[in-house]
Write a structure and sequence with these properties.
With about 170 residues, the chain is α/β, with parallel strands linked by helices. The chain has a single domain, classed as Alpha-Beta Complex (Nucleoside Triphosphate Pyrophosphohydrolase), CATH 3.90.79. The chain is about 20% helix and about 40% strand. The chain contains four helices and nine strands. The strands form two sheets. It has a five-stranded mixed sheet with strand order 4-1-6-5-9, covered by helices on one side. It has a four-stranded mixed sheet with strand order 7-2-3-8. A hairpin with a 2-residue loop joins strand 5 and strand 6. The chain is globular.
Length: about 170
Protein backbone atom coordinates (compact mmCIF):
# COMPACT_ATOMS: atom_id res chain seq x y z
CA UNK A 1 0.00 0.00 0.00
CA UNK A 2 1.24 3.50 -0.84
CA UNK A 3 1.71 6.09 1.89
CA UNK A 4 -0.95 8.86 2.06
CA UNK A 5 1.67 11.36 0.85
CA UNK A 6 2.06 9.59 -2.50
CA UNK A 7 1.89 12.07 -5.39
CA UNK A 8 -0.37 9.58 -7.17
CA UNK A 9 -3.24 10.24 -4.76
CA UNK A 10 -6.00 12.56 -5.96
CA UNK A 11 -7.18 14.94 -3.23
CA UNK A 12 -10.65 16.36 -3.67
CA UNK A 13 -13.63 17.93 -2.00
CA UNK A 14 -17.24 16.86 -2.28
CA UNK A 15 -20.58 18.04 -0.92
CA UNK A 16 -23.56 16.21 0.43
CA UNK A 17 -26.13 18.61 -1.01
CA UNK A 18 -29.44 18.13 0.82
CA UNK A 19 -32.67 19.91 -0.04
CA UNK A 20 -35.53 20.78 2.31
CA UNK A 21 -36.91 17.22 1.96
CA UNK A 22 -33.51 15.66 2.83
CA UNK A 23 -33.06 14.49 -0.75
CA UNK A 24 -29.41 14.25 -1.77
CA UNK A 25 -28.11 15.49 -5.12
CA UNK A 26 -25.84 12.99 -6.87
CA UNK A 27 -23.85 13.10 -10.12
CA UNK A 28 -23.81 10.14 -12.48
CA UNK A 29 -20.26 9.32 -13.58
CA UNK A 30 -19.70 6.84 -16.40
CA UNK A 31 -16.21 5.35 -16.83
CA UNK A 32 -14.68 2.73 -19.07
CA UNK A 33 -13.47 0.04 -16.68
CA UNK A 34 -11.26 -2.96 -17.26
CA UNK A 35 -14.32 -5.20 -17.58
CA UNK A 36 -16.61 -2.74 -19.38
CA UNK A 37 -18.50 0.41 -18.47
CA UNK A 38 -18.79 1.41 -14.81
CA UNK A 39 -21.46 3.82 -13.59
CA UNK A 40 -21.05 5.53 -10.23
CA UNK A 41 -23.40 7.94 -8.46
CA UNK A 42 -21.39 10.33 -6.29
CA UNK A 43 -21.76 13.65 -4.56
CA UNK A 44 -20.74 16.73 -6.56
CA UNK A 45 -17.22 18.06 -6.17
CA UNK A 46 -13.76 17.56 -7.57
CA UNK A 47 -10.07 18.24 -7.30
CA UNK A 48 -8.28 20.90 -5.30
CA UNK A 49 -6.18 23.25 -7.39
CA UNK A 50 -2.75 24.47 -6.22
CA UNK A 51 -3.10 27.16 -3.56
CA UNK A 52 -6.80 26.49 -2.92
CA UNK A 53 -8.21 25.80 0.51
CA UNK A 54 -10.70 22.97 0.89
CA UNK A 55 -13.61 25.41 1.10
CA UNK A 56 -12.40 27.52 -1.84
CA UNK A 57 -12.19 24.34 -3.94
CA UNK A 58 -15.63 23.24 -2.77
CA UNK A 59 -17.19 26.59 -3.69
CA UNK A 60 -15.54 26.54 -7.13
CA UNK A 61 -16.53 22.95 -7.87
CA UNK A 62 -20.17 23.42 -6.83
CA UNK A 63 -20.49 26.60 -8.90
CA UNK A 64 -18.94 24.86 -11.92
CA UNK A 65 -20.85 21.57 -11.74
CA UNK A 66 -24.27 22.36 -10.30
CA UNK A 67 -24.54 26.16 -10.09
CA UNK A 68 -24.76 26.29 -6.30
CA UNK A 69 -23.25 29.19 -4.35
CA UNK A 70 -22.14 28.26 -0.84
CA UNK A 71 -22.35 31.43 1.29
CA UNK A 72 -21.38 30.03 4.71
CA UNK A 73 -18.70 27.55 5.76
CA UNK A 74 -20.44 24.16 5.65
CA UNK A 75 -19.60 21.50 8.25
CA UNK A 76 -16.95 18.90 7.37
CA UNK A 77 -18.73 15.59 7.96
CA UNK A 78 -16.79 12.82 6.20
CA UNK A 79 -13.18 12.07 5.25
CA UNK A 80 -12.71 9.35 2.65
CA UNK A 81 -9.42 7.63 1.88
CA UNK A 82 -9.02 4.92 -0.70
CA UNK A 83 -5.43 3.90 -1.38
CA UNK A 84 -5.01 1.11 -3.88
CA UNK A 85 -2.51 0.93 -6.71
CA UNK A 86 -4.26 1.62 -10.01
CA UNK A 87 -7.47 2.77 -8.26
CA UNK A 88 -8.36 5.08 -11.15
CA UNK A 89 -6.49 5.93 -14.33
CA UNK A 90 -3.35 7.83 -13.36
CA UNK A 91 -3.90 7.60 -9.60
CA UNK A 92 -3.34 5.09 -6.84
CA UNK A 93 -6.19 6.36 -4.73
CA UNK A 94 -8.30 9.27 -3.64
CA UNK A 95 -8.72 11.41 -0.57
CA UNK A 96 -12.02 13.26 -0.37
CA UNK A 97 -13.12 15.71 2.28
CA UNK A 98 -16.91 15.86 2.29
CA UNK A 99 -19.00 18.78 3.54
CA UNK A 100 -22.72 19.07 4.26
CA UNK A 101 -24.55 21.77 2.30
CA UNK A 102 -28.25 22.39 2.90
CA UNK A 103 -30.21 24.27 0.26
CA UNK A 104 -33.63 24.66 -1.28
CA UNK A 105 -34.28 22.25 -4.14
CA UNK A 106 -33.07 23.51 -7.52
CA UNK A 107 -32.39 22.30 -11.04
CA UNK A 108 -28.62 21.69 -11.16
CA UNK A 109 -26.92 23.68 -13.89
CA UNK A 110 -23.46 25.05 -13.31
CA UNK A 111 -21.03 27.05 -15.39
CA UNK A 112 -19.75 23.94 -17.20
CA UNK A 113 -21.11 23.11 -20.63
CA UNK A 114 -22.47 19.65 -21.42
CA UNK A 115 -19.22 18.92 -23.27
CA UNK A 116 -17.14 19.97 -20.25
CA UNK A 117 -19.28 17.82 -17.96
CA UNK A 118 -18.81 14.90 -20.35
CA UNK A 119 -15.03 15.41 -20.19
CA UNK A 120 -15.41 14.98 -16.41
CA UNK A 121 -17.44 11.79 -17.10
CA UNK A 122 -20.61 13.39 -15.68
CA UNK A 123 -23.73 12.49 -17.63
CA UNK A 124 -26.61 13.28 -15.27
CA UNK A 125 -27.70 14.85 -11.97
CA UNK A 126 -30.46 13.41 -9.82
CA UNK A 127 -32.08 14.09 -6.46
CA UNK A 128 -32.39 10.86 -4.43
CA UNK A 129 -34.53 10.18 -1.37
CA UNK A 130 -33.09 8.12 1.46
CA UNK A 131 -35.58 5.38 0.61
CA UNK A 132 -34.45 5.31 -3.04
CA UNK A 133 -30.82 4.99 -1.94
CA UNK A 134 -31.42 2.17 0.52
CA UNK A 135 -33.76 0.24 -1.80
CA UNK A 136 -31.62 0.62 -4.94
CA UNK A 137 -30.80 -2.79 -6.47
CA UNK A 138 -29.43 -1.80 -9.89
CA UNK A 139 -25.93 -2.30 -11.26
CA UNK A 140 -24.76 1.30 -10.75
CA UNK A 141 -22.49 1.89 -7.76
CA UNK A 142 -22.46 4.60 -5.11
CA UNK A 143 -19.34 6.47 -4.04
CA UNK A 144 -18.62 5.94 -1.30
CA UNK A 145 -20.16 2.46 -1.43
CA UNK A 146 -21.57 3.04 2.07
CA UNK A 147 -23.32 6.25 0.96
CA UNK A 148 -26.88 5.05 1.76
CA UNK A 149 -25.95 3.91 5.28
CA UNK A 150 -23.60 6.82 5.99
CA UNK A 151 -26.23 9.35 4.91
CA UNK A 152 -28.91 7.60 7.00
CA UNK A 153 -26.61 7.86 10.03
CA UNK A 154 -25.88 11.53 9.35
CA UNK A 155 -29.60 12.34 9.05
CA UNK A 156 -30.51 10.34 12.18
CA UNK A 157 -27.64 11.41 14.45
CA UNK A 158 -26.83 14.89 13.16
CA UNK A 159 -23.40 16.40 12.65
CA UNK A 160 -20.45 14.38 13.92
CA UNK A 161 -17.96 16.03 16.29
CA UNK A 162 -15.14 15.02 13.92
CA UNK A 163 -15.36 13.96 10.26
CA UNK A 164 -16.33 10.28 9.97
CA UNK A 165 -13.68 8.22 8.15
CA UNK A 166 -14.96 6.27 5.16
CA UNK A 167 -13.30 3.86 2.77
CA UNK A 168 -14.25 2.84 -0.75
Amino acid sequence: MLPPTSPRLRHGVRAIVLDEQDRVLLCRFAFDGLEGPVVVWATPGGGIEPGESLLDALRRELAEEIGLAVPADPPHVWHQEVVREGHIVGYDGVINDVFLVRTASFAPRGAMTDAELAEENISEFRWWTQQELTQYRGTDLFAPRALPAALATLLAQGLPEQPVHLGL
